[in-house]
UniProtKB/TrEMBL annotation:
InterPro entries: Cro/C1-type_HTH, DUF5753, Lambda_DNA-bd_dom_sf. This is Helix-turn-helix transcriptional regulator. It comes from Streptomyces erythrogriseus. It comes from the Bacteria. Residues 18-72 form the HTH cro/C1-type domain.
Length: 285
């Protein structure tokens, strides 16, 4: 696959364009489904980019929407072709959160709130191995190894020399105190966080225990933003058996405001660093 082709992003952009064409035609998803003799849920999945779309699907939809400009049809057909390519993560087999990886790979910035553990992009190998094994005790060693490798591969987005991912992380203090693996693993992990937090495109803040109830009390979430104005921001909420992606403007705005509250309630960058440094010394004893 060409390195500049991200199938997940191609599906999103294609879905957005197909939705725009439908709305210009003044049709509902139900009406389109009736015309094509398919389910309404298929039309919805095609438009939200969660399902691969074939060139035949594009051709049929352009017919329903009476798209006369062949250049538009050809462009959409090419996007459909690109969207069926495979990203680097497909080489690792069936990854439950492959849609998220595709979005993260193309994102310009990422804001994360993590209440339980050190977020994946900042994890060391030893810490990641302990997290994956502890979180998936019934999975085989081979499956867990694959998940760790994918997690470490994702970190290339924050270590890239050109256009690295801008990352802002709010960690609950609990994540710093939970001993994952061993005290040595934790010491090395927190040292790694300190090292990465020195990079100009990475910001780490700690939400202290003393805050009490706070804006992130309902759990972990991430906000992804993209350089292309055509790509709307996405809120990602990880689940055990399924994940949630929110793209409606009012949903994204609500989580963005929540994140601003979390940042304000957290220790500032220097205070956060001093707390992590103190815990590194404690884990070294």
């Amino acid at each position: 696959m060409a390195s500049n082709v991200n199938p997940t992003v191609r599906r999103r952009r294609l879905g957005q364009e197909l939705r725009r064409l439908r709305e210009l035609k003044g049709m509902t998803a139900e009406e389109v489904a009736e015309r094509l003799l398919v389910s309404q849920s298929k039309i919805s999945r095609l438009e939200n980019g969660r399902r691969s779309i074939s060139q035949r699907d594009v051709r049929d939809l352009c017919g329903v929407y009476e798209v006369e400009d062949q250049r538009i049809v050809d462009s959409l057909m090419q996007m459909a072709k690109d969207s069926r390519q495979q990203g680097w993560w497909h080489a690792f087999g069936d990854i439950p959160y492959s849609v998220y990886i595709g979005l993260e790979t193309d994102a310009e910035s990422l804001r994360v709130y993590e209440p339980q553990i050190i977020t994946g992009l900042l994890q060391t190998r030893a810490y990641a191995e302990a997290i994956v094994q502890g979180g998936s005790p019934e999975s085989s060693e081979q499956e867990n190894d694959k998940r760790v490798e994918v997690r470490l591969r994702r970190q290339s987005r924050i270590t890239a020399e050109q256009d690295p991912l801008r990352l802002w992380v709010v960690l609950d203090e609990a994540a710093l105190h939970r001993v994952v693996g061993s005290r040595q693993v934790m010491r090395e992990q927190l040292e790694h966080v300190l090292e990465l937090s020195q990079l100009p495109h990475i910001t780490v803040q700690v939400l202290p225990f003393e805050v009490g109830a706070h804006a992130g009390i309902n759990g972990q979430y991430s906000i992804l933003e993209f350089a292309d104005a055509a790509d709307s921001s996405v809120v990602y909420i990880e689940g055990v058996t399924s994940d949630l992606y929110l793209e409606k403007p009012h949903d994204v705005q609500k989580y963005t405001v929540m994140y601003e509250h979390l940042r304000a309630q957290s220790l500032n960058v220097e205070q956060s660093r001093r707390l992590v440094e103190r815990l590194v010394k404690e884990y070294a004893r």
